[in-house]
């Protein structure tokens, strides 16, 4: 890489690198402070079925930075993963999600909702991950069957048998699994067959141009068919228009998430059901 930018000499040191390293160190430190000062918060985005009924939500982390305002996960999750801070951060997410699930279970309008939580590969691979989830469920009193863990294909890089064993243990307690961003990573169909999954989540990059790009339409159709063949539920993410929803539904996809139904928000405002006639 250094060669490519420097022509025939090798660049051993570039002063810009110091800035980058300093900025990363500062960011890491800020994440640490943020965890201690409870600056992180969860937003919730609805997931709906074909009838438009809310069936669940996905928890999406946000950082309310005292000076910089709201920071999106794309800006800090990768660094949190590299630095290992994803462990305390991710454990907080699970605890907070379980508390939210418990709270929803106490109200008739939200008692049926599931909650999907993103778990990074590094987090899932920590030795005591299963215990952490079970104790978060236990101490919150949340129903394990309403908790869905979203993994990405990156969890499959090594030790697949160990990953499967962990998944099975959690599943034996009722916890569900969804494979997020499906189709964008290293997807071996051999692994897919072996994994004790409940759901495939079609990545939004395929949904975006589903009506104008025949390749995206074909990939989407294939994922839906694959899910069907393997006995897995399929949900599409990034659904922004009625036309996309109609198309997906015509292809036999019956669960959706996207701005069309609601943006991630601090509270989940379930649309009012038809009031009972009195
Ligand atoms: P993801 O899990 O694939 O989440 C979907 C992303 O798409 C979210 O971005 C969501 O806000 C966005 N989105 C939802 N509907 C639409 C839509 O209709 N159109 C478009 N263009 N985008 C839509 P967000 O919240 O910025 O999160 C980005 C990524 O950060 C997530 O992708 C996930 O990989 C990661 N992430 C978020 N929260 C957590 C967390 O608690 N733990 C971990 N490990 N990762 C997280
Ligand atoms: Mg996700
Ligand atoms: Mg996704
Ligand atoms: Mg994504």
TrEMBL record:
Domain EAL: residue ranges: 24-278
Subcellular location: Membrane
Keywords per UniProt: Membrane, Transmembrane, Transmembrane helix
Name this protein carries in UniProt: EAL domain-containing protein
Organism of provenance: Undibacterium curvum
């Amino acid at each position: 890489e250094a060669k490519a930018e420097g022509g025939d000499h090798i660049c051993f040191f570039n002063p810009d690198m110091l800035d980058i390293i300093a900025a990363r160190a500062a960011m890491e430190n800020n994440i640490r402070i943020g965890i201690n000062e409870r600056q992180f918060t969860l937003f919730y985005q609805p997931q709906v079925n074909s009838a438009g009924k809310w069936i669940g939500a996905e928890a999406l982390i946000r950082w309310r930075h005292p000076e910089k305002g709201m920071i999106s996960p794309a800006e800090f999750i990768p660094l949190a993963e590299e630095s290992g801070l994803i462990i305390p951060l991710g454990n907080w997410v699970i605890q907070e999600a379980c508390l939210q699930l418990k709270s929803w279970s106490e109200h008739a309008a939200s008692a049926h909702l599931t909650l999907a939580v993103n778990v990074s590969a590094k987090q899932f691979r920590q030795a005591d991950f299963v215990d952490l989830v079970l104790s978060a469920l236990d101490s919150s009193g949340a129903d394990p069957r309403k908790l869905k863990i979203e993994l990405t294909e990156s969890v499959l890089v090594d030790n697949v048998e160990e990953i499967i064993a962990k998944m099975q243990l959690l599943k034996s307690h009722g916890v569900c699994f969804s494979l997020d961003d499906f189709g964008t990573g290293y997807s071996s169909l051999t692994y897919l067959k072996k994994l004790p999954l409940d759901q495939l989540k079609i990545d939004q990059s395929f949904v975006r141009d589903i009506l104008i790009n025949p390749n995206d339409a074909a990939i989407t159709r294939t994922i839906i068919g694959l899910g069907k063949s393997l006995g897995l539920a399929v949900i599409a993410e990034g659904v922004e228009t009625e036309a996309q929803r109609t198309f997906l539904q015509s292809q036999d996809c019956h669960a959706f998430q996207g701005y069309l139904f609601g943006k991630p928000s601090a509270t989940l405002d379930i649309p009012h059901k038809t009031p009972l006639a009195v």
